[in-house]
Amino acid sequence: MSDFQSFGLNEAILRAISELGFETPTPIQEKMIPHLLNTPGDVVGLAQTGTGKTAAFGLPILNFINPKSRLPQALILSPTRELALQITRDLESFSKYLPGVSLIAVYGGAPIDRQIRAIKSGVQIVVATPGRMLDLINRKVVDFSKVEYLVLDEADEMLNMGFREELDAILENVPSERNTLLFSATMQPDVARIASNYMKKPTEITVGKKNSGSSTIQHIVHLIHEKDRYEVVKRIADSNPDIYGIVFCRTRIETQDISDKLRKDGYNAEALHGDLSQSQRDYVMGKFRDGHIRILVATDVAARGLDVNNLSHVINYNLPDDVEVYTHRSGRTGRAGRTGICISIINLKEKFKIRSIERTVQTSLQVKPVPTGAEILGRQLHSLIDKIHTVEIKEENIAPYLSDIQEKLLHIDRETLIKKMISMEFSQYFERYSKMKDLNVIESGDRPDRKRFDREAPRDQDGGRFNRDSGRGDREFSGSRDHGDRGNATGAEPGFSRVFINLGKMDGLTPKDLIGIINEVSRKRNIEIGRIDLGKTFTFFELDEKFARKVVEDFQGTEYNGRPLQVEFAKKDTGPASRFKPEFRERGGSRNHDRGGYKGKPRRDR
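Predicted structure:
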């Protein structure tokens, strides 16, 4: 007797899931299925992707479906076509022995007339993307009067994709007397708003810690120089001979470029991004699901809702701007009880983001070295040996040739034969990696996984982030870089240089924050920092002129909450610093009330 039998599910459902190999329920299934079977009402389920949520809500819904009614009794909304199709396939498998139960997946990119005809012919369960579902509602072709279950799967993803208005409209068109089941990996404010507005005293069922990452995922960081980013991807692939994963990139252009480079270099890779037609996307995803493509290079939008259970790796070619997106990226691996690895490739200027990610996923990110050539050769060699051990010998195929082979190899002793075989198989790897340089960054100072300046930026009254570029028009005292500016010519005190940075009060910046940022970027604690003049969208500050040039250079290529920082010397005609009210002063020594500020050694904001 399987654990699922104790839940009280229909025998036809138990037969179907038994054939699928269901024996022990996952944690979300163990909590959710008996609750839904025995306790009517709304439920919020918080669990990472890949934890078995489809069966958790699908099996109880199928248990209650009335096959004699030809009107929809359940509406399941998902963020993407791929996930809608996967849910439909799973429910069809679960209902294999339930006669009269019909399902349909409705989504954009497919003929709407065909979907309309299918709905009118009679279905009990509709699985839909929000955009296409609202289109069908507006056409008045679907009757939701008998809907008893409304499921919002990956609600946080739907809101991240901009479906807030569609969800509001759909929720207003289904009966108020219903059971609403909301599933999400994180409890974002917009998700909480839906729960508050459209659910009645929902029961919250959480698997793991709220808003945390999956415990089955190992999070790794490789610190590299920017120019080595692509090379590190190849090192990761070569050090994991059986890799089956996704490389996440920021843009469509970058996604296609990395995919093209990987294929040119002999890797089994394809791109998935918004410039592909739906038929191209389906073709790529079909090959990827079948394992014919081992590395999928994708944008976040294209990869949302992917449901592939046995991915070994997720590689962040670039870190996402939104830390919540990291949770969804990493959640592509470590699914269905399997373990997975999420590797982030970051340069020295980005390492401050590590702590912010750790707070979100509530686990440590391990800073590990990039595999060296010798390490990769060793892993490839062990992989070959493992394949030799497990290869299936088909006697009927080799029997006609075996005597000739033995005769030709008779004069070669065992040790020499092994060496020749390895040399033949590994000649390309020896050539590629034996003289390859070490790509690891050698750092000094504090632990790199604890350096950061990642204050949450303030939001405007509508909940959106302030436009950080809006400060360009305020830069009345700034100009182009002029590394020759020094001293009083820019309003700085003797021995100091005056520097501009495109952060200000609107970014939530304080003098303490700025000092912390300077310390983090320069990796020095002995730089004297003089007057700090905070503006609304920009700031001027003074630095010991002996270090100013290096600090300005160190800032090049850095980001603050995903926005590129612009740091440059103030021009000679910026005017005296007295145009601003002095906000803070940091120098060597003790308190000096005549100076109007605090004096002490610069320090990091912890």
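Summary: The chain has four domains: 3-206, 217-372, 375-433, 453-586.
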